[in-house]
Amino acid sequence: MKRTHGIRALLAGIALVALGTGANAATEIRIACYSDGNECEATQALLPKFEKDHPDIKVVVDKQAYKAILESLPVQLAAGQGPDIARTTDFGIISQYFLDLRPLLKDAAYWDANYGPTLDWLRADPSDKGIYGLPTQITVSAPFVNKTLFEQAKVEMPGPKASWGDWVKATRAVAKATNVPFAMAWDRSGHRFSGPAISAGAKYFAADGTPAVVDDAFKAMAKSFVGWNQDGTMPKEVWGGQGGGGYRDAFEEFANGQIVLYLSGSWNIARMEKQIGTGFDWVAVANPCGPAACSGMPGGAEFVAFKTSKHPKEVAEFLDFMASEPIYAEWMSMTRNIPANAALQKKGIDYKLSPAGSAAMNVFVQQGALLSPVAYRLQGYRYKQVIFNPIADRLGQAVAGQITVDQALDRISADIKDQLATVAKK
To answer: Which of 302, 248, 303 is nearest to 67 (CA)?
Structure first.
């Protein structure tokens, strides 16, 4: 009997410990995160500071591919199984799931003052005052150039007012002289294509504010772009090697010295430093000019919060922490990104970059001041992926030779019309 009593006492003790552990267990919030460079890793590195002051909250960073988040996140949210927070650039299609953080934040006025312009990118219209997420950076698209190849070829690099035609001529000469396979490559992205198109004069929107993408300037840039892919100036597999609106960068080709000029953006500075190192001299250069502008595209991902979360209070606490000036400054320094925080834009960030990285960052900051108003309008359009995805899809088909450029342009217009009609029904 005594033995039975002892076993019962032991089991009771274990039960009490289990209950106590359950009562004190930290609330877990999960972030679906992708990295352009090291954004997920930098976020992970900051977690001990947050969890030290918030021992009741456990943050888990689930690193995923960018394409995976774009394609799977809408499906997960529709099924009520999405993460608490996600890092993404595609806002319109998932906007119905946004959590308004404003009533949950410690000081919403601080967010309004420091992050206001980029908070608008998540809002439905000017009357919407919700705060739905935290910008993880401001980005600017512009080309990277293999300076070493220009020096080896003894070809002069075009100046800051050069056109895309000037760069095509120069990079072709460099590629030929150095036996490099390709002169140029652009990321497979409607966003990346749009900077050159806007510089050429593409307006993207009609006078009433509705999308009207395929005008004469857009057509001209599309025909030039497909032609450069088909004549060997660009590697066809970047845009023509996959279907749909899927993203594909050309970083590896550039890093391996197979491309002279690579149109990408500021988010790749950290990756350039880490992967290329001293392999060759690389520089960022001004966006080539067209008749209308010398513009790239602004951009930026955001940590977006979702109302499907079972822990909205904890989500707000974490994003408040990341938005605070000292933490945000450390985050930007670690990721080598341009801050969206207005106060830090004035104060500056100590990036601890290499000379090449510092020079590139200065170029991107300067390019930010030259962005076309059309580029800002396009980036702020809630359903911009409805525009970007058909551009990548249909021009990719034209590059692959599956359809003509004229057919691609017709289908871009039709796709945008159909997808906007679908969005309107939701």
So the answer is: 248
Q: d(Cα 315, Cα 293) in Å, to the nearest integer? A: 41
Q: Is the separation of the CB atoms in 86 and 303 below 8 Å? A: yes
pLDDT by residue (tens digit) across 115-138? 988 898 898 888 999 999 999 988
On the question of pLDDT at 389 being above 60, the answer is: yes
Q: Please, where in the chain does CATH 3.40.190.10 lie?
A: 26-138+300-347, 139-299+370-425
Highest CATH level, class, for 139-299+370-425: alpha beta
Give the Cα separation of 51 and 34 in Å (integer).
Answer: 22
Percentage of the residues of the chain whose pLDDT score is greater than 70: 94
**Number of residues in the chain:** 426
Environment class of residue 126 by beta-carbon count within 10 Å: exposed (0-12), middle (13-18) or buried (19+)?
A: exposed
User: Do residues 98 and 306 lie in contact, with contact meaning Cβ atoms separated by under 8 Å?
Assistant: yes
Task: Name the pTM for this structure.
Answer: 0.80
- Rounded Cα distance between 288 and 163, Å, is 5
Identify the CATH number of the domain defined by range 26-138+300-347: 3.40.190.10
> Given the structure tokens 């990346």, which residue do they identify?
192
pLDDT tier, 20 (very low <50, low <70, confident <90, very high otherwise): very low
Tell me the C-alpha distance between 294 and 369, whole Å: 11
What pLDDT is stored for residue 3 in this prediction? 46
DSSP 311-332: -HHHHHHHHHHHHSHHHHHHHH
Q: Average pLDDT for residues 209-232, to the nearest whole number?
A: 97
* DSSP-derived secondary structure letter, 370: T
At 405 the three-state DSSP class reads: helix
- Quick check: 36 and 268 in contact, CB under 8 A? yes
Position 426 scores a pLDDT of 65
Q: Are 175 and 183 in contact (CB under 8 A)?
A: yes
* Per-residue pLDDT at 8: 53
Encoded amino acid at 168, one letter: V
Rg over alpha carbons for the chain, rounded to the nearest Å, is 24
